[in-house]
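Protein modeling request. Please complete all fields; requests missing the sequence field cannot be processed.
Requester role: graduate student
Desired output: 3D structure, token encoding
Chains: 1
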Amino acid sequence: MKIYFLAEKLKHRHTFLKGLVILMPLVSVFLSAWLTHDYFTVDSYNWWYIGLYPGLIGILCGIIGGKDKKKKNFTIWSLPCRMEKIWDAKVLIGAMMSGIAMSCTIILTIITGKVIENMMHRTFSVYPSIKMQLAAGVIIWLSTLWQIPFCLFLSQKMGTFLMFLVHMGSYTVISATISLKPWFALFPGAITSRLMCPVLGVLPNGLLAVEGQMTWAPELMEAQNLPIGIFASLFWFLIFWWGSRKIFQRQVNI
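Delivered output (254 residues):
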């Protein structure tokens, strides 16, 4: 598996893949710091997992899957290699890159928050502890892993542009609506927004999770949602990985 992973990684050595996973977090944190002050920290994460992060994953998967897709995958189907291992390598590259991007977001948010607080002498109305921010970053990464095999599969079937539209359109609607329902775990796109309610204290619509706010409900703040949501996210990740892997392998065998 290591050889497949290194080979897949080598394909993207001269692409802007590495720069993208740093640039997108920079943009997210900069916009949050510029446009919001008192709520910078929660807005930085909220804007990230609601829009910029799924958008980044869509672009990453378009690049990772599109490299061979441009040549109709003939460059890999003609090789004496196990196709399912090639697919696994693509998923792992996507998971690694998304993890780097998430790490950059956490680091930049913490550093920028400290700069605003100490050098600009501003205090935040809401400021989650560093431990809570680290926990939020790990949960966001785990609960969005399913997007990688999902987007890779869509990019193979409908191309990068349509994949991006379908992914972002469905995710935006589901994360803002179904995440409020008791059965949110049945839809992977609803899980991250729901889990951030008790972790960061922010609702899917970006408002603070306090009584009286639009869409607020006490069940949104229940800690028991965390293990349920994380387990469901990993379950969806394995389902999408296994299913897309089988389909990719079958295309060659046929």
